[in-house]
Amino acid sequence: FFYAYKTFLFLWSTRIGMLTASNVWTAVKLSTSAFRNKLCPDSTIVLFFPDLSYPCKWYLNDKPCPNKSCKFLHKPSSLGYLMNCLNQTIFSIDVCIFVITSQDLSEILIKLHKKGVIVRIITDYEKMDLNNSQIEQFRANGIQVRHDKTSFLMHHKFAIIDGKTLINGSFNWTNQAITGNQENLIITNNQLLIKPFKDQFEKLWIMYKP
Question: Does this UniProt record's set of keywords contain Coiled coil (predicted)?
Answer without folding.
Answer: no
